[in-house]
TrEMBL record:
The keyword Electron transport does not apply. Residues 66-129 form the DUF4352 domain. It comes from Actinomadura meridiana. Keywords: Signal. InterPro entries: DUF4352, Immunoprotect_excell_Ig-like. It holds the Pfam family DUF4352. This is DUF4352 domain-containing protein. The keyword Signal applies.
Length: 158
């Protein structure tokens, strides 16, 4: 009986922190002056802990490039929290106009100017390129935190 109670307690503790229905992160507008909500309509007065802006860009291929097509966005990450914010090129993904998600690790090191791996203090910002292999039109760029849960999303400006 004691083993059953301990087992049930362990299962309860392990699943208590799980959020099975995670709310999607609101998508920030391509226009820095107008934040957009989850449905794409402007969210009045909404501020985001991590401000993320993105614009379509072209990257200069590095010596490590294998010659495949790259689709890139220039991102700016601004830490609007009161804590340090970890930024890493592996924390980004790009969703195209067909709603296909492209992982940035597919093109890591194949272009110059990628966003640096850094720690941002409150109020600091970092800018750089995020690319993925393939020839597609970027629609949304997403950034995760070190635990790989989504932290910020932004529409890509043309």
């Amino acid at each position: 009986m004691r083993k059953i109670i301990i087992s049930l307690g362990a299962v309860a503790v392990l699943t208590a922190g799980c959020n099975l229905e995670q709310d999607p992160v609101a998508v920030q507008s391509a226009d820095p002056g107008k934040p957009a909500g989850k449905s794409g309509s402007p969210a009045k007065g909404k501020t985001f802990p991590i401000k993320l802006t993105a614009k379509r860009a072209h990257a200069k291929k590095s010596i490590l490039s294998d010659g495949d097509a790259l689709s890139c966005v220039k991102v700016t990450v601004t830490n609007q929290t009161k804590k340090q914010l970890e930024v890493n090129p592996l924390y980004f993904s790009i969703t195209d106009t067909g709603n296909t998600k492209h992982d940035s690790s597919s093109a890591l090191g194949e272009y110059e100017g990628q966003i640096d791996t850094t720690s941002l203090a409150p109020g600091e910002k970092a800018t750089g390129l995020v690319c993925a292999k393939g020839n597609f039109h970027p629609k949304i760029v997403a950034m995760t935190n070190p635990l790989f849960s989504e932290a910020a999303r932004a529409r890509v400006a043309s």
